[in-house]
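Researcher: I'd like a structural prediction for the single chain below. Treat it as a standalone chain; there are no partners to consider.
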Amino acid sequence: MLTHPLPKLLTNRGSDTSDITIRCLLILGSLAFVIRVLVVPALNLTDLLSISVIMVVWYSRRTAVYYVTESGTVG
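Model: Treating it as a single chain, here is the predicted structure.
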């Protein structure tokens, strides 16, 4: 049995206008890439580079999550 409740999640920042704009552009780029793959299924080096860039930018734009303990410290 748990002696302490599960920690609460706290984000360090909200989405601002530039963050929303970047995410919209990434969604459009991702959709364009999927349509391109469906039309011409053969992938080349440029397509693989596009996938890598999209994945790296999506990962870097994720909001960090901190765990707040019962005593109020962030860990």
